Amino acid sequence: MPKKPTATDAQLILQLYDLRREAEMRKARHWWVAEFWPQSADDCMKIVAAMGTQENNWLRQVGGYWSMAASFVLHGALNEELFIQPAVSGEMFLIFAKVHPFLKDLREKMGDPQMFGNIEKVITNSKFGRERLKLTLKRVQTMREKRSAAKAS
Questions:
Q1: CA-based Rg of the chain, rounded to a whole angstrom?
Q2: Which alpha helices (DSSP H) does 35-126 contain, by range?
Q3: Which among 116, 125, 126 has a CA at the least distance from the CA of 96?
Q4: Phi, psi of 78 (to 5 degrees)
Q5: Does residue 45 carry a pLDDT above 80?
Q6: Contact call for residues 29 and 22 (beta carbons, < 8 A)
Q7: What does the alpha-carbon distance between residue 42 and residue 106 come to, in Å, rounded to a whole number?
Q8: C-alpha atoms less than 13 angstroms from C-alpha of 24 in its C-beta half-sphere
Q9: How high is the pLDDT of residue 2?
Q10: Whole-angstrom Cα distance, residue 4 to residue 78?
């Protein structure tokens, strides 16, 4: 049975929120949310291969942040139900939804079968998480289509 949320869980959530407010992290998060719209594993690989670029740093910074936070849940340091609430980890669902359609291919190309693994485990561990992912995948697909249509015009 999962543990009930505690004041310590709430404190950790607030600390994670504080880390997201750091200036460079804000830039990295903005890039992931507003500018980075990969259509394939190859789109991700272009950024991965561009070591030393700002985009490469941002890709790793945000992915690493959410993977670290998810590991707290997976190892029992943070209450899962509290963590997967949209106000806490909605952004994690969004970044995962952006790579989800080609995650298998991305893992193969990277030679890393665990890439985004902590995030995936936390998201798919509960019915709420799985339903939230379905909703987020639909939203991301709609956003992709709108972006593609806008570029075509």
A1: 16
A2: 41-49, 54-74, 80-83, 86-99, 103-110, 117-124
A3: 116
A4: -145, 135
A5: yes
A6: no
A7: 8
A8: 9
A9: 56
A10: 10
Long-range CB pairs of 8-13, under 8 A, 24+ apart, other chains included = 9/78, 9/79, 9/82, 10/82, 12/72, 12/77, 12/78, 13/78, 13/82, 13/83, 13/88
Q: Could you please report the per-residue DSSP string of 9-45?
A: HHHHHHHHHHHHTSHHHHHHHHIIIII---SSHHHHH
Residue in the structure block whose two tokens are 């339903």: 131
Tokens of 82: 């509290």
Give the model confidence (pLDDT) of 70-123 as tens digits: 999 999 999 999 999 999 999 999 999 999 999 999 999 999 999 999 999 999
pLDDT given at position 35: 96
Q: Position of tokens 């992915």?
A: 63
1: confidence class by pLDDT, cuts 50, 70, 90: very low
Q: Given a cut of 90, is residue 146 above it in pLDDT?
A: yes
